[in-house]
């Protein structure tokens, strides 16, 4: 499926950037949103190197999706520049591995505000236009941690579980307008965000995530491209992640016992 205008939050690195490069190869106009302008400038160069025509618009705009006023101004700028997206990818997010009892209220709130409310705000900014155009696709980026609760991820899992619930309701509400909704739920992926998290990750969280393994970003991108094209709701890349998803869904008691056993073993 060819998308004319693609807007990606969290587009300066990781999954967001790799998806941007893939759609640049398909001839799409690309707008990347992230906070760090220097990283955005580098990402734009990488995307332009993969563009297929000189007419492709590829730009990076610095904005914090959790800042409603700045986001509103950014959305208006995008509409004036390339128009409303027909593919909107919500990849901006933050993570922290911290026990519930130890996590400060402000840190918990920041994760919820960025991962959940930030995604909601971006979608709200473009949704009326997408409905009016009667076409398009929205892809939220959740996580396997939004399907399977993990030690140390009370805030992160709360935000990512909520993203799936929000996306599911939205999918039902806008289906009649020809706008699809998908949710990408990868396990751990080799990205800068994960590398930074590894400096302070709890041993129990690390142990559990190591069982599932770490995917390279290309594998996630391939699964995302395929799932988005099919308007697949839940997209889970990787064999081990798919297996874990199936076990958690169809054998919840056994899977919960197994997870608790992993916590016990890793805490020794």
Radius of gyration based on Cα positions: 18 Å
Q: How many individual domains?
A: 1
Shape: globular
Strand order of the largest sheet: 3-2-1-4-5-6-7
Class in CATH? Alpha Beta
Q: What is the CATH architecture term?
A: 3-Layer(aba) Sandwich
Question: Your description of this structure?
Answer:
The chain has 268 residues and is α/β, with parallel strands linked by helices. It has a single domain, classed as NAD(P)-binding Rossmann-like Domain (Rossmann fold), CATH 3.40.50. It contains 10 helices and 7 strands. It has helices spanning 14-25, 37-48, 68-81, 105-133, 154-174, 192-197, 203-212, 217-229, 239-250, 252-266, and strands at 5-9, 29-34, 58-62, 87-90, 137-141, 180-184, 234-235. It has a 7-stranded parallel sheet, sandwiched between helices. Helix 4 links the parallel strand 4 (87-90) and strand 5. Helix 4 (105-133) packs parallel to helix 5 (154-174) and helix 7 (203-212) packs across helix 10. The chain is globular, with a radius of gyration of 18 Å. The termini are far apart. The model has no long low-confidence stretch (mean pLDDT 95).
Task: Give a brief rundown of this model.
This protein is an alpha/beta fold. The protein has helices spanning 14-25, 37-48, 68-81, 105-133, 154-174, 192-197, 203-212, 217-229, 239-250, 252-266, and strands spanning 5-9, 29-34, 58-62, 87-90, 137-141, 180-184, 234-235. Helices cover 54% and strands 12% of the residues.
Question: What tags apply to this protein structure?
Answer:
single chain; 268 residues; alpha/beta; Rossmann fold; 7 strands; 54% helix; globular
């Amino acid at each position: 499926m060819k998308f004319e205008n693609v807007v990606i939050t969290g587009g300066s690195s990781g999954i967001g950037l790799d998806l941007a490069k893939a759609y640049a190869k398909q001839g799409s106009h690309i707008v990347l949103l992230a906070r760090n302008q220097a990283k955005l400038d580098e990402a734009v160069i990488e995307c332009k190197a993969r563009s297929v025509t000189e007419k492709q618009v590829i730009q990076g705009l610095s904005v914090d999706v959790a800042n409603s006023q700045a986001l509103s101004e950014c959305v208006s700028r995008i509409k004036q520049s390339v128009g409303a997206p027909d593919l909107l990818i919500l990849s901006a997010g933050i993570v922290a591995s911290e026990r519930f009892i130890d996590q400060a209220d402000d840190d918990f709130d920041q994760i919820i505000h960025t991962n959940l409310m930030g995604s909601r705000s971006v979608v709200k900014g473009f949704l009326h236009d997408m409905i009016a155009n009667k076409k398009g696709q929205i892809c939220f980026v959740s996580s396997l941690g939004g399907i399977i609760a993990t030690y140390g991820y009370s805030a992160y899992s709360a935000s990512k579980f909520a993203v799936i619930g929000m996306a599911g309701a939205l999918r039902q509400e806008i289906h009649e307008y020809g706008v699809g909704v998908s949710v990408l739920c990868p396990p751990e992926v080799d990205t800068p965000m994960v590398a930074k998290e590894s400096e302070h990750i709890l041993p129990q969280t690390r142990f559990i995530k190591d069982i599932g393994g770490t995917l390279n970003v290309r594998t996630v991108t391939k699964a995302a491209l395929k799932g988005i094209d099919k308007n697949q709701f839940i997209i889970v890349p990787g064999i081990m992640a798919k297996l874990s998803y199936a076990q958690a869904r169809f054998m919840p008691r056994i899977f919960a016992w197994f997870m608790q056993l992993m916590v016990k073993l890793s805490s020794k």
